[in-house]
Amino acid sequence: MTSGTVHDVLPEEADLPGTGWLAIDEGFGSDDPARTAPGELIDCVGPDFPGDDEVVETAATPHYVRPPGRLVHGFGVRTTTVEAAGRAQLVLSSRDFAECLGRSVAADLDASDSEAELLAVDVERTGRGFRVRFTGGTGDGVRPVQLDVVCVAADRSVGLLWFADTPDPFPEDDLVSVIERVRAR
Asked: Which are the contacts of 57, defined by CB distance < 8 A and separation ≥ 6?
């Protein structure tokens, strides 16, 4: 796959399996990565990630949701060089990044007005990246949220794709289908 823009490594609504998906926000893009990147991403990339002088474009998709609990989201970065994109991919594909992202997202969920109490955050390697599992409890019982984090790259662009579902992981065939459609661009 040869990438022309950062959007080439991000899922579009047409890439999603089945019907009934809703875009719950507009997504965003900017030449200023500090304004565009979600806080979880900025907080977790560390010093090896390309600096502001090496990032030329960033973008994110809407949070595509399909009730009752399925979500697909993507964030991408385009760099000045293939070498810088390689460094971005190494960072975004690392266990340290997945663990930091998991802790950050879990903290956001825990700080929400939800009645759920965060019980555990676990991270495990999968064949495509990492799965972060958040387990929360309420008076109604314990419920896990599964978040698969997958990194895709093309030329100078790198995309971080999030696939979430509850209580079971995002269906494997659907996850593979979305990844293959993004990589086919």
From this structure: 5, 6, 29, 31, 77, 78
What's this model's pTM, rounded to 2 decimal places?
Answer: 0.84
Q: 143-152, pLDDT tens digit by residue?
A: 788 999 999 9
What sign has the CA pseudo-torsion 51, 32, 99, 5?
negative
Q: What CA–CA distance (Å, rounded) separates 48 from 71?
A: 29
Asked if residue 53 lies in contact with residue 33, where contact means CB atoms within 8 angstroms, the answer is no
Provide the 10 A C-beta neighbour count for residue 66: 16
* Structure-derived torsion over alpha carbons of residues 39, 172, 5, 85, reported in degrees to the nearest 10: 70
Q: What is the DSSP letter of 7?
A: G
| Spatial distance between the Cα atoms of 183 and 123, rounded to a whole number of angstroms | 25
Q: Which helix (H) or strand (E) holds 72?
A: strand 70-79
- pLDDT, tens only, 132-170: 998 776 666 677 889 999 999 999 999 999 999 988 999
* Structural contact between residues 27 and 175, judged by C-beta atoms closer than 8 angstroms: no
Counting Cβ atoms within 10 Å, is residue 91 exposed (0-12), middle (13-18) or buried (19+)? buried
